[in-house]
Each structure stands twice: as structure tokens, then as C-alpha cells.
Amino acid sequence: MLSLTVTSAVAATLRFTAGLGYPILPVEHRPRSAPVVMASVLTVCKGGSCGTNGGSTLLDAACVFAAGCDRELLDVKTANCCGECPVGVMIRPSYKIPSYIALAATAEQAMDSAEEAISATGASVRPEMRQVFQLAQEAERIFADGFSVDAIAAAAAALAAIPTDLLEPWQPPLEPEGTSWEGTSWEESLHGSSLVLSESTANFEFGTVGANLTLCGCEVDADNRQLSGDWEGSDGSSGSFVLTMSEDGRFFRGQLDGGEASERIWEGMRLGVGTGMRRRRRGAEPPLKAAWIHDLLLRRSRLLLAKGDTNLALEGAQQAVALCCRAASGYALLAEVAEACGDSEAAAAAHRENRWLQSFA
Known about the structure:
By secondary structure, the protein is of the alpha+beta class. The chain is 34% helix and 20% strand. A hairpin with a 5-residue loop joins β10 (238-245) and β11.
């Protein structure tokens, strides 16, 4: 049985290679860079009449074709409804080029219009991407009919046609959290509340869990990321505790001794510091240029799981995680497949990563 462990931003993305032909480096060894500002952003309207006239198909073609272009020079987005209700689809190759009406009534027209728009940005479409788009569209058509052997085969054919460089990671890993206990807040498991820690262990009352629990006389072992001390309950109970923070600073696990039950397991997840409109989720959806690949991997994996082929289903879920490590949907499926494989440890790790990515920073 394949054993998996998720730490950091999936700590080497499950150290998964699974036939991709390239190594997945541990998070601490991966290069990081500042966010890239795209030179061109191609926008396609798919609302209103544009949607009726093939806007979704044109957007799909633009995403597939743009995936094969320089990742740092061209992006694809959906546009707000222009309100003009054209006879075709409103498209804009870049902010420097005015919007115009493109034809997309058929898949062939959509491919021609997408290629024309991308060419207008100065980029070029790889010849093989037309076949990739056609295979992806065929797989999408068969998916609509539900589970079948044909659907699995269609997804496999589309994935096999994708150039290998497009299967390399599309999202950078999340930065690890700090490992200091002071001044942090945690969603905790014992009371379904928040553990709030003060700025210094010099404070006798270092932490509180609402009105339920107070942590006193605490000490920090920074080398082992441990917090220990005594606790007092609102009902007069008391005891000691030891908590250990994960290497990536996201979670803690430990136990409380004393009180009504001895050795109670205590777990927690770090809470974000954002408030109101400034809150944002830690994870992110795959970029549109890669979302169609991610979706193909997930769909094929689900179909294989339904068929009972858990090994191939696991491989597909791992590929999706490797492709877009900030997308929670990949970890949700990975947890499901790992459970089907009987690997409870891997399932729990994937569940934690899914939970983390869906939480707020």
C-alpha cells in the first residue's frame, strides 16, 4: 500500500512523481519568486448572448491554447457581460487591443477565433494543442453521460495528448507559517472554540479558550516547537498539558492530563489574522489555463474510483495535487481515494490540507 504524508504545502507534494517525468522537490528546496504580472490578459465573455453564441467553447479553446504559450506572458480570464449582445462572442486579446466580435458557433470556429486572438498578442499556438482541445471536448461530452468505460478512455486519451511540460506545477507552494507560539490563535478541538495565546509566556495566564480553559505557567521549547504548562478549567478542574506544533506551523497536537479524563488528545489549526473584507482563503482555484487539466485529472480519478481501480484513481488524485498544490478540490479527492485504499494516515493528511486551504489567512 502506498503511504503518504502531507506537511508544509504538501511537503514535496506527497513526493510524487507518478510518471510525470520530473521530480517534485521538497517545499523547502523549491525556488520562490515574486508574483508575475502578465504581459497580456485575454478576456472572453460567456454571459448573455455571448454564452448562447459559443462563449464557453471559445473560452475553453483559449484556455487550452494559452496553456501552451509562455506562462508568464499570457493569461486568460472571463469578462463581465458587455451588454452589447452581439451575434458572436465578445473577445479582447489584451488591454491594449479593443474588444471585437469573434465567431464560436462550432468547435472549429472557436479554435480559429482563439488562435487569432492569441496571435494578436504576439504569442503563437502550438499545432498539437488543436488536437488536445478536440480530445478534451470529446471527453467533456462523454462525461455528461455519467460513468462509463468510454468516459475513462476519453479522459485518458486527452491527458495522454497533453505536452509533458504542461503537467508541471502551475501553482507555487504556500509559504510555511512561523513556529512561534506567542501571539497566535488556534481553532481547537476540545471545546470547538479558539485558543488565544498572549504575546509572552512571561504572563502567568498565557492562553485562554473562551471561558472554558486557562493555560498557566507556560514554557516554550522552541527547538521542538513545544508548549507546556498547567491548565485550569472553569469548573475547577486542573492538570498539565503538552502541545507540539507541526513543522509547517499550521497545526498542533498534544494532550491534557488531569481532570475527569486523563490524556485527552488536543488538536488545533492556526487561525488567520485577516478580518472582514481583508480575509482571504489560503488556497486558490487553479488558473484557467490549467483548470481544464486539473479537471480532467479529477474526473478521470473519480471514474476510476467508481470502477474500483483505486491504484489508478490514487495516481490521478496525486497528479492533480502536484499540478495545483493550492487547490483544495485535489486534496478532497485524494482523501477520498486514500480512504478507499485503506490508508487512513494518508487520508487524514489530505483532509488536513484540504481544511487548511479552505480556511482564511
